[in-house]
Each structure stands twice: as structure tokens, then as C-alpha cells.
Amino acid sequence: MSRQHDFDAFVVARTPALSRTAYLLTGDAHLAEDLVQTALFKAAKAWHRIEGDPEPYVRRILYTQNVSWWRQRRLQETSLGSYDGASPGVDADLRLSLEQALARLTTRQRTVLVLRYFEDLTEVQTGQALGIGSGTVKSICRQALARLRTLSPDLAELIGDAS
Amino acid sequence: MTLDRLREELARLGDTAPVAQVDHDTWQRAGRARRRDRLVVAGSVLAVALLAGALTWLPDRVDPPVADGAGGAVPDQVWAVPERLAERSEDDGSWVSDEVETDLAIGTGALAFEKDGLPVVVDADDGDYHLLELPGFFELQADSPSSSTGDDAPLSLSPDGRRLAYAWVRFETDSPQAAVASGVRVVELQTGTVREIPLPSNGGVAVGGFDWSPSGDWLAWVGDDVSGWTGESSGGTTPVAGLIGPVADTSQPLPVLPNNASVSYAPADDGTVAIVGDSRMLVVDGPSVERRVLHVGERFSVGATFVGGELYDVRTAGGTRGYSVHLDPTRERLDLPDQGMASQTVEPLGWIDDRHLVARVTEPSDEEGEVSASELAVIGVGDDPSYDVVGTIEADVPPISVATDLMSLEQPTVERPEPDWPWSSTRVALTIGLVLAAAMLAYATTTWWRRRAGGRRGTTGDAPGERRTSRSLLLVGGTVLGAAATVVWLLAVPGIAGDSASNDDSSAVLLTGVACIVGLGTIAMAVRRWRWLGAGLILGAVGAVVVLLMLLVTTVG
Hints:
The complex is a heterodimer of chains A (163) and B (557).
Chain A: H1 2-26, H2 29-45, H3 55-73, H4 78-86, H5 94-103, H6 107-118, H7 123-130, H8 134-151, H9 156-159
Helix pairs in contact in A: 1-2, 1-3, 1-6, 2-3, 6-8, 7-8
Chain B: H1 3-15, H2 26-57, E1 77-78, E2 100-101, E3 109-115, E4 118-123, E5 129-132, E6 155-157, E7 163-171, E8 180-188, E9 194-198, E10 205-212, E11 219-226, E12 237-244, E13 251-254, E14 264-267, E15 273-276, E16 280-285, E17 288-293, E18 300-307, E19 310-316, E20 323-328, E21 333-335, H3 337-341, E22 345-353, E23 356-362, E24 374-380, E25 386-393, E26 401-402, H4 425-458, H5 464-496, H6 503-526, H7 531-556
């Protein structure tokens, strides 16, 4: 019972933070909700095996699950279509524009950006969380920033030339 | 650092995210899923263990037992050779099957027989079936001239299994005078060398049977001197017989006993030959011939041989009046158990010692004319009669000769793996077809499932109804697939493998097929996405087997 209590407490405390990350990772409120639910379900299944702070475990599921969903989604083009459909709008608002630009990155690029600049993880920590090398993290990050710049010149001043 | 602005924007964007609703029963659902996963793992382990057990249990396929005892041993099961392996090319009469060997140095033979003209020697060391291409082998066909040699065969293995004697014939078309060259060839199975003993005759000698001395040095043969023999037709025949010495390449003629119902030749290790007829016998020692009168009543010899210097003559009164063994010169009579095996046919193959006869024993064919498999038996004769079945000889196996020196009372026979005959082309084609069909079905199902899964995730709402539908669809589909595959396998394979020698063989094949389907289902069950399909496969396969068995029982009953 105490385990269930721990789990419930964790859910109440951390769901908002997880939701924010999930939203940034997916760019879609429904997918973000699915992602959080799935990650917490998987964490509950393995709760007895988690030692110490469960948050890194849950976050790792969040990141990797998103990538694997993206792999499964490749067969259907509806989600990409919906992003494209939204883009012709006048992007006077910088926030919208960033959101759209993020949607056009690959899932890996978006995930790395979110981990590095939203979660404020180091390159090494990002690499550990995704199971890739820190060199790979660096190069994906550089590609992602370059892509953002190309996609939306307005963002250039946001990102700057440094990378 | 301008990237700080990106950080801020991301944080701002993150703050607009709605907080996800987490179901209250997440913990309970996770617990159920965990238990289910454990069950699947345990089930998979169990299924794999069962499968492994079944595979081991399948007769001798997986782990062929190794015979102990140097010099080899006689197998406890003699399998028939499928007819397709004895097929010949229509152009030049050569064997069609790749299994036929030309290298005659096979070591020691345990037993030998001839299947539709194809000589078969079973290896004493590993139980392999050697299909041999013997040069000039004379195949004793139904329309060939042959003497009334009964169950004799035109090839014979010596008691120690090291030599193989066979009849050969060569039809010369260009010389009508000496049209036919014929005789006996003796193969040393250790080296593969062939000793040729031509038999001078008028038109060619069709040798129809052999008898070895106990040591395998002397060889007596019986046959027919055929006049006007061309291979297609033949004139009259005259029975002839002869004796071949240990290293001789000539044969010395032996007398024949005309007007006898049956005649047995028994060469001894010293070169004397006992020729046993119905009521008298001749003992031939070089040029001298001694005649003896037999006091055996109305009994006919079915096989005589020397055991420890004394002649052991197995005789029968015919019909159901049983067998007995008559000794010479002591005139002792030894009885066989069970009223002399009265209801069965006993073909003597050799002696293990002076009280134990090795024989092929066959039940008379039943009312429908169905010939049952024979028993390879060690029969204790005399005061302490016994009957031990030490092996099985399939019904389709023609008369065999056995290297009885390799048998002992302690270890008469050993278990050997069933020969692994190549599949018939129809069976190969059907298997490939089935596998292709299964692969295509699997591919189609995968694609369909992915589309469904993708579509489901693409929709915004939670769709438990659809999920259940796809599960039940998978389950039903798996069941249908498993049942169909099982039924097709069980019904189609025996028809195709009908010539594959034996019931045991086909039942092993059938079991393997069903085990494969169940194994596939088990593997599928271990994968989360496919577990319903896997469950369906197993359910279908087991269900089909049960239904078929019930049908079988009802029909038989």
C-alpha cells in the first residue's frame, strides 16, 4: 500500500512538470497527455524496481516513448499534415512561430532541444537520458538550431548566431 | 548569451501546456498488466520447455544414442526405404537419387537387404542407411529366372558384417555365343575392394541365394543356369550350386538335390558343406560326398548352419504345426517356445550361441491381407525356451541378412536414429508454398495492424472499444490460422509422405509440425503486440488436434 501511496504522491506532485515537458516534446496537447499517461503507467508497472528518486526513470520513459511513437507514426502522415495546415497563419506572434518551427524539426532534434534548453540538462546528461553519446547530442543540437534559423528568419534574433 | 531567450521562450511555451489528466486506476491497471506479463513469461517458459521436451521425445531425431561396444551393433529398428529412392533414370538405368553411393568402403554392415533392385546396407557403427551402387548387381525380379530359393536374396552380409556377397550379371549384346557373363562378387566393406568370382556356364548363372560359414570365410551359393538368357527373355533353367573359398576367385560346384521341397546349404569353417534336403543330407568335403538319411518326419528345412562344429537345422512341418531345431550328428531335437511358434512365420537369420536363434518372426497376414511388421527376435531353444523381441522390422522390408556376430545376449540390438530420407519433391514444394503463404499472411496482418494502430493514435479520443475489437480480431484470426494450418498439415502431409516409409516417421513429422505451430504461437505470445494472435494460434492448433482426434475415435469406434 505504501508503494501505491508513494506513486500517487509522485503523480500529484510531478504531473504538471511532466505535462510541460511532454507538451514541448510532442507539440500536441492530446499526444502530451497520452505520453504522460503512458510513462506513468509504465513507471507504476516497474515501481517495485525503482530505487531512489523515480523522476529520472519516468522522464527517460517520456523521452524514449516519444521517439518510439514517432517511429510508429511514420506510416501515417496525418499529424504532419495538421502541423502544415496550421502554418500559413500570420506568425506575427513569436511564440506561435517558435511552436510551428519546433513542429518541423525531427523528433530527435526537438527532444534534444527540449532537454538542453528547457530541462537545462548538460550534453552529457542529455546523452545519458536518451542513450546516445554526448557528441551525438552536440551535433543534433547544432543541426536543430540551424534548422530553426532556416525555417524562421524571425527566430534568428531569438537564437542568435552562437550555437 | 542569446540562447537564454530560447530558454525563456521554451519555458513560456511550456507554461501554456495543459496539465495531463492521470487516471486514478493507473496503479491498479499497472498491477494487472504486471501479473499478466509474468503469466505470459511463465507460460512461454513452460511452452518452450514442453516444446523442447516434445522434440527430445520425438524418436531419436534430436539425440541419437551412441552404441557402446567396438565393432558396431545391430539396430533395433529396420526401416523400409522409400520407393522413390529406388527410382532409376529411364535413359541409362542409373539411380535417380543422390543418396546412392559408389564408395563401397563403409566399414562394417549390421544388416543388408535389397529394395526394388537397390542394395541397402545399414552401418553397424552409426546405423546409417547406405544405398549402394554395386557394379553389375543382378536384381532378382519377379520375371527373372530364379530357383525356388524362397526368401533368399541375391545379396547377403557375412555373419561378422565385414563382407557383402552379391550376384552380378553382364549382358553382352555384340557376342551372341558368350552372351552373358555372370557370377558372384564379394565386397570387403572395410576397404571397398571387390573380389570377382565368374561362374562358367552355358548361358549365364542367376545366383539367387547365399549361405556363409560361421567365420564368413566360405560362401555357398545357389542359383540357376539359364539358357538363352538375354535380359529380356530366357529359356530353360537348371538348378546349380557352388562353394567359394576364403580367397578364391573360382567356385567349386556343389551337388543339388532335385525333387526336394526345400534344400539348405551350410558351409563349415573347414570347407565342408552340409546340404540338407527333405529326408536326406549330403556332407561334401572336397571330392568326397557322404550321404546320410534324416529322421525328421514330415519336416522341411528352412535354414541350416554350423554352430560350434555341429549342424543346426531349423525345420517346419508347414502350416501351423510349428518349428523345431534338429542337430546333426547328435540327432538331438530342440523345441522352440510357444508350441514351436506354431502360428507365426520364422525366418532364421543366425545363432548367437548354441541355444539362441536370431530370427525374423512375422504374424500371418490378417483377413484383409494386411502384412504386419515383423519382430526381430532372440529365441531360446531347448530345455529353457524363451522369446525376446529385440527389434522391429517394417512390413515393407524384403528378406534381410543380419550380422549376427554383432549381437550378444547382453546387447542384442541398440537404438539408432531413424534414417533422414530427403523429402520428396511434392513435399518440398508444399512446404515452401505453406511457408510463403504464412509469410504473406503475416505481412498482410502486420501492415493492417500498423494502419489500425496508427489510425487509432491519430484520433483524438480514447477508443477502448476499438482496442477490444482488434484484440478479438487477432484472437479469432490466430485461432482460424492455427486451426487451418494444423488441419492442412495433418491431412495433407500423410498423403504426400505416404511413401516415406513408416507410420512412426510420419507421426514424428506430424508432431513436429504441430509443435512448430504451437511454438510460433508461444513466441508470438511473448511479444506484447502479438500475444492475442499467439494465443489464437495455440488455441487453434490444439483445438484442431482435439477435434481431429475425436473424429478419428468416432470413426474407428
